[in-house]
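Ticket #4471: complex job returned nothing on first submit. Input attached below:
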Amino acid sequence: MNPSRRRWLQSAALACLGGATPLLAVARPKARVIVIGAGFGGATFAKTLRALSPHTDILLIDARTHWCTGPFTNLAVTGLRSIDSIRRSTIDIGRAHGVRTLVDEVTAIDPITKRVRVASGQTLQADRIVLSPGIAMRWGVIEGLTPALSGAMPHAWTGDAQVQALRDRIDALADGSTVLIAAPPNPYRCPPGPYERASLIAEHLLASGRKRCKILIADAKDDFTKRPLFLAEWDERYGGMIEWIPRAKGGEVVRVDPSSGEVWLRDQPNSIGTHLASIVPPQKAAVIAELADLVDESGWCPVHPQTFESTRHAGIHVLGDAAIAAPMPKSAFAANSQAKLAASAIAAALAGRQPPDARMINTCYSMVAHDAAISVSGFYSAASGRIAIVSEGVSPLNPPGGLRQREAAQAHDWYDSISTDSFGPRA
Amino acid sequence: MPTPRLHFSASLLVAGLIAAAPALATPSAISAKRLSPLALSCQGCHQPAVNAASMPSLADYSAARIAANLRAAREAPEPGSIMARFAKALTDTEIDALAAELGTSAAR
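Support reply: We reran it on our side without changes. The output follows.
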């Protein structure tokens, strides 16, 4: 046994003591794959590679013991779901998928030697590294918004304590309040998320007798996904309660004061006084991707789309929101589908088989009320270094009777299905 | 502590015992058929372990029925059908291959 191999086994044995699934110790060398990030991309990758390559040693690392899924966060903050019902646990995911887990923060990755350092001090050796690390906020773009002060204007975009904070703040709104949702510039996690949020907050406020509230969406863009559908649904369901301010009309948030609730839009001399501001900041790939030299000048990770292997470092793959995979959106379903392709590609490489047919799909449902949803879907293929749209579609603007309700039922079924597929049954 | 070989055999055994059951989402189900990435992605919604009302498991659908449903979604979709968005660019060959991967071979 060579020294690095011995260190790996020692590290792995330590991980076992921390509650992970048992190490399958064997004498012959087997591929060691470290997966960083236990969200939709990383968890699905671990499950799929475990199935396709049973002898590979897979370690799934996430700094979080528990977190809330991005999908259905807007239902949880408006009381349509409990927060507990969208919570998932790293260790439970490892148990469900038969892979070892380590709850620790990855602090460094050497992209050449494939060594991974975690906050507790261990250094782990991999043969391949797969990152599905999610996003980081670009602090400093909006003046006055810092990580420490962000909780007073909760984005609730990363599944942490801000989800409960936003729910509490919505509950506490008095009639006549002004709510402002800041929608970030492209690209960002969950493109329809800010607009779904406005819809469900409007419904929640109306249903609880707070009819004089106003919801402003201050947008850094001039367009957004499913825009004609959202605008029509808002008009029909919520009258003038929701107002969308596009970039061209000065919608971009440039400064905030989290202590007073004031928000300043570009080129507007006066601030807007808010009772609740949910400021979703501009985004980039998670910090660990930057530390590992996996991002380009855009702040996101370029990949070969047939395998999601980094174009910057061989043997390292980046999936999900952190990867540059346009025209696929940064969505849970896209991460799940990318993970299945990447795991199939790595399993094929390990076994000396031909790479798989590189096709992926996505659907994003958006709830526009508790019993109404709209959706957009895409079918993608990857070839010659780019991802192409094979086919796509969106809900019709004038729906046949009952379609919005049927899509709402589908959205709930989709959530149960994709989260069970990615994370296993709820413990 | 089981060896990987034992672990793998056990998985195959379990797969063999409940191969006809719809609630099959274990890794062994994937490894037994080595589904393509596209077929695996279908299971993101058509998840055997959930078998949701609007997006049922395909595990106990015949390949012929899946193929017929995909052709119907391509040629005469219900208004607002999500499956039509995926089916509209599939060739007959692609539909038959996908149906064979996802469905049972026995007619039902």
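The first strand of chain A starts at residue 32 and ends at 36. Closing as resolved unless it happens again.
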